[in-house]
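Progress note, sequence design subtask.
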Protein backbone atom coordinates (compact mmCIF):
# COMPACT_ATOMS: atom_id res chain seq x y z
CA UNK A 1 0.00 0.00 0.00
CA UNK A 2 1.52 3.28 -1.12
CA UNK A 3 0.73 6.30 0.99
CA UNK A 4 1.70 9.86 0.15
CA UNK A 5 1.36 12.38 2.96
CA UNK A 6 1.51 16.05 2.00
CA UNK A 7 1.99 19.05 4.24
CA UNK A 8 3.04 22.68 4.08
CA UNK A 9 0.18 24.36 2.31
CA UNK A 10 -1.42 27.52 3.58
CA UNK A 11 -2.16 31.14 2.84
CA UNK A 12 0.52 33.62 1.87
CA UNK A 13 0.72 37.08 0.40
CA UNK A 14 1.78 37.72 -3.17
CA UNK A 15 5.55 37.50 -3.40
CA UNK A 16 5.82 35.20 -0.43
CA UNK A 17 7.15 31.67 -0.14
CA UNK A 18 5.93 28.27 0.95
CA UNK A 19 7.50 24.84 1.05
CA UNK A 20 5.41 21.77 0.44
CA UNK A 21 6.50 18.37 1.69
CA UNK A 22 5.40 14.91 0.64
CA UNK A 23 6.43 11.84 2.57
CA UNK A 24 6.27 8.41 0.95
CA UNK A 25 7.17 6.01 3.75
CA UNK A 26 8.34 2.53 2.94
CA UNK A 27 9.37 3.27 -0.65
CA UNK A 28 13.08 2.62 -0.38
CA UNK A 29 13.64 2.03 -4.09
CA UNK A 30 14.98 5.31 -5.49
CA UNK A 31 13.88 4.50 -9.04
CA UNK A 32 10.73 6.54 -8.80
CA UNK A 33 9.39 9.57 -10.56
CA UNK A 34 7.88 12.01 -8.14
CA UNK A 35 6.07 15.17 -8.98
CA UNK A 36 3.73 17.91 -7.96
CA UNK A 37 0.52 18.72 -9.77
CA UNK A 38 -2.03 21.40 -9.03
CA UNK A 39 -5.67 22.00 -9.79
CA UNK A 40 -8.07 24.88 -9.51
CA UNK A 41 -11.85 24.60 -9.89
CA UNK A 42 -12.92 24.49 -13.51
CA UNK A 43 -9.43 23.82 -14.81
CA UNK A 44 -7.56 20.68 -15.72
CA UNK A 45 -4.93 19.33 -13.42
CA UNK A 46 -1.54 20.83 -14.29
CA UNK A 47 1.89 19.32 -13.85
CA UNK A 48 4.11 21.71 -11.89
CA UNK A 49 7.42 19.95 -11.25
CA UNK A 50 8.91 16.48 -11.47
CA UNK A 51 12.01 14.69 -10.29
CA UNK A 52 12.94 11.42 -11.95
CA UNK A 53 14.78 8.46 -10.50
CA UNK A 54 18.00 9.65 -12.10
CA UNK A 55 17.58 13.06 -10.48
CA UNK A 56 16.57 14.94 -13.61
CA UNK A 57 14.15 17.77 -13.02
CA UNK A 58 11.25 19.20 -14.99
CA UNK A 59 9.15 22.31 -14.50
CA UNK A 60 6.11 23.90 -16.00
CA UNK A 61 6.99 27.12 -17.81
CA UNK A 62 4.73 29.04 -15.45
CA UNK A 63 6.89 28.19 -12.42
CA UNK A 64 10.42 28.05 -13.85
CA UNK A 65 12.78 30.19 -11.84
CA UNK A 66 10.35 30.41 -8.92
CA UNK A 67 9.73 26.83 -7.81
CA UNK A 68 12.27 24.14 -6.99
CA UNK A 69 11.64 20.44 -6.45
CA UNK A 70 14.03 18.41 -4.35
CA UNK A 71 14.19 15.05 -2.66
CA UNK A 72 15.63 13.63 0.55
CA UNK A 73 16.09 9.90 0.01
CA UNK A 74 16.98 9.29 3.65
CA UNK A 75 13.66 10.75 4.74
CA UNK A 76 11.64 9.44 1.77
CA UNK A 77 10.37 12.95 1.26
CA UNK A 78 10.03 15.20 -1.75
CA UNK A 79 9.75 18.97 -1.43
CA UNK A 80 8.44 21.83 -3.50
CA UNK A 81 9.95 25.17 -2.59
CA UNK A 82 7.73 27.92 -3.97
CA UNK A 83 9.05 31.48 -4.10
CA UNK A 84 7.72 34.72 -5.55
CA UNK A 85 4.22 33.33 -5.33
CA UNK A 86 1.49 34.84 -7.47
CA UNK A 87 -2.27 34.77 -7.17
CA UNK A 88 -2.41 32.40 -10.13
CA UNK A 89 -0.45 29.85 -8.09
CA UNK A 90 -3.51 29.42 -5.88
CA UNK A 91 -4.56 25.79 -6.22
CA UNK A 92 -4.83 22.42 -4.56
CA UNK A 93 -1.39 20.84 -4.87
CA UNK A 94 -0.95 17.10 -5.16
CA UNK A 95 2.09 14.92 -4.73
CA UNK A 96 2.28 12.13 -7.30
CA UNK A 97 4.38 8.97 -7.46
CA UNK A 98 4.97 7.38 -10.85
CA UNK A 99 1.77 9.04 -12.10
CA UNK A 100 -0.08 6.26 -10.32
CA UNK A 101 -0.33 7.23 -6.68
CA UNK A 102 -1.72 10.57 -5.53
CA UNK A 103 -1.69 12.34 -2.22
CA UNK A 104 -4.76 13.90 -0.70
CA UNK A 105 -3.78 17.41 -1.75
CA UNK A 106 -2.75 20.49 0.17
CA UNK A 107 -4.27 23.91 -0.46
CA UNK A 108 -2.11 26.88 -1.39
CA UNK A 109 -3.77 30.29 -1.41
CA UNK A 110 -1.94 33.42 -2.57
CA UNK A 111 -3.59 36.78 -2.14
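Output:
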Amino acid sequence: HVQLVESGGGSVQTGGSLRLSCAYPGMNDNRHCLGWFRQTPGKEREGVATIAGDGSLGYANSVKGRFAISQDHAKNTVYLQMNSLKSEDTALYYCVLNLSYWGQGTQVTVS
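The chain has a mean pLDDT of 93. Work on this subtask will continue into the next period as scheduled.
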